[in-house]
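User: I'm putting together a small comparison set for a docking exercise, and I want a reference complex before I start. The sequence is below, and the ligand is 3-isopropylmalic acid. Could you produce the 3D structure with the ligand included, as structure tokens?
Assistant: Of course. I'll restate your input first, then give the structure tokens for the complex.
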Amino acid sequence: MDFKIGVLAGDGIGPEIVEQAIKVMDAVGAKFGHNFNYTKALVGAIAIDETGDPYPDATHQVCMDSDAVLFGAIGDPKYDNNPAAKVRPEQGLLGMRKKLGLYANIRPVTTFPSLLHKSPLRQDIVEGADLVVIRELTGGIYFGARGRSEDLTSAFDTCVYTVEEIERILRLAYEYAGKRNKRVTVVDKANVLASSRLWREVAQRIEKEYTDIETDYMLVDNAAMQLIQWPKKFDVMVTENMFGDILSDEASVITGSMGLLPSASVGRETSVFEPIHGSYPQAAGKDIANPLATVLSAAMLLESLDLLEEAQAVRDVVNRSIDAEVVTVDIAGDSKAYKTSEVGTWLAENL
Amino acid sequence: MDFKIGVLAGDGIGPEIVEQAIKVMDAVGAKFGHNFNYTKALVGAIAIDETGDPYPDATHQVCMDSDAVLFGAIGDPKYDNNPAAKVRPEQGLLGMRKKLGLYANIRPVTTFPSLLHKSPLRQDIVEGADLVVIRELTGGIYFGARGRSEDLTSAFDTCVYTVEEIERILRLAYEYAGKRNKRVTVVDKANVLASSRLWREVAQRIEKEYTDIETDYMLVDNAAMQLIQWPKKFDVMVTENMFGDILSDEASVITGSMGLLPSASVGRETSVFEPIHGSYPQAAGKDIANPLATVLSAAMLLESLDLLEEAQAVRDVVNRSIDAEVVTVDIAGDSKAYKTSEVGTWLAENL
Ligand SMILES: CC(C)[C@H](C(=O)O)[C@@H](O)C(=O)O
Ligand SMILES: CC(C)[C@H](C(=O)O)[C@@H](O)C(=O)O
């Protein structure tokens, strides 16, 4: 089959890690008889530098025309600590989410047995943890009205949610849980926020439709605790945009496999797949960054195209590379560290 | 000296743990020649049951007339999972915060060497962690306009901050850091929120006045990660109300001493001191709950009255009780578990 893949490598280590994922996808293509046609486009700081816009129209068009989008990372130190700069790379990200309608961010958090010692948590607490954080991505306080008072002495942000937005993300969470361990934890702050009370009302209605799924309600402060105390008790956690930003990042460090975690942002028109880590500017161009999170994001991408066997083949070869210690310096331990490009080539050759 | 202490024991285990703190304060009074005059008042579910109001006017008056307030815990299972109930115990808490102007919630997070094995984190990660989370408590999305659209298909909340509110809490954080390890981490989401950008602007101005304090800016998602990865790198963390709710709870579990952590809510008129744990209804009336967090809250109360030596004496006797294993079942391990009341009596007698 033929597939059109948008490739938005972005900043820092973005280009070099995306390159490895493409090697692996090409190996998948050769093995399973598919044709992946890649179209590159600019995003992030590099897009600002070249066009003045972190998510140019041309890039949007590429995404709209693609069956799926592979994304690297964005962010450049020259924009850090300058949150008031007129144009910032993050605006590109938020613009992309809104324009493509990427309403659900999905982050599986899994453990890799040989990396458990990297976790800041006790081994017995994290061993076998396997959860997914599903974050609503185009609503809430990220996209509500905001501003300053006229005299500049105060500022405000607005968190808005509609029944439709809540229902859409909840359904996706329940579908996901149906294919997993059949538990959904709905996280909100219903004892304080009106928007959270609406979330809970909608959830209490939707939950009745999924009789085989167990539903749990948890306040966000409690969830922030339990994620560390008992990560294994969670299967699918679903929550609104801001809480999801915090909890999905918190969840990503508990297993010690942060450099290996992929994500998907599911949209109406297309979906975007990217590693959860950032653009790691200090490592850019050095051929040392770990490409596995991006390769595993490519596996999620294949899955979204219904190429399930292909996705599994990618996951398998990643596991074999870890077992064979063909890994980059961040997870190499005492064994030899391989280059980014060497890991990518090994994966492609051993798929 | 004479002091007027408001006593709001609240629900669940509240009354029995507050009783132990009072035993200890009376021992302090006898030893150092002070007179603590206690006035009890209703708060929480018990106040709803008796007056229909979780924070009755009479209680407010008691607080206003007190030099400091000792608080137990609130919350009753009959109000759980019913966030839409007309009157809820939490409303009492929020009402109290607003009416007393309790603008700063202060939560020291410390380790107790003999309890480190209780931490979900690796011992080397938490050993020696010593930080304070300072949370703005009367502003932000907790107290902004909220509601439903007329057709009930959407709901909103508003986060508002004024320069004055931000400046007040930041100054308190810098004063605190000055007496500690001279580092302040300002946590916000300045890459997205207008209110956070105001926070950062104000912080960038205030920081210049405290030349001996090192300031660090951190996005809330990053803070949620680093708290687990490197809890020892923090000294004073300061943030807005909602982020503080999440991060202070997250921080409370990292050291494994959650049942021992006190808090202070500092106000214009008076300040309120309470354990960070909840009302633990399953244990109510059983004389098994750990009173140490409440006793350590009393130590913070004494400090607020400028009774520094007295506060230290309370902390010392708490440490000695742990060393002597005169502790309740939650931290007793293999040794004998003492009753709540026995621990309180031991502390008072050994002060
Ligand atoms: C860069 C920032 C705007 C973004 C967010 O908060 O959504 C990031 O933290 C993320 O989680 O993708
Ligand atoms: C009960 C609730 C309203 C309260 C809050 O969110 O402030 C609690 O979680 C706390 O942190 O004291």
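The CA atoms of residues 183 and 214 of chain B lie 5 Å apart. Chain B has a mean pLDDT of 95.
User: Thanks, that's exactly what I needed.
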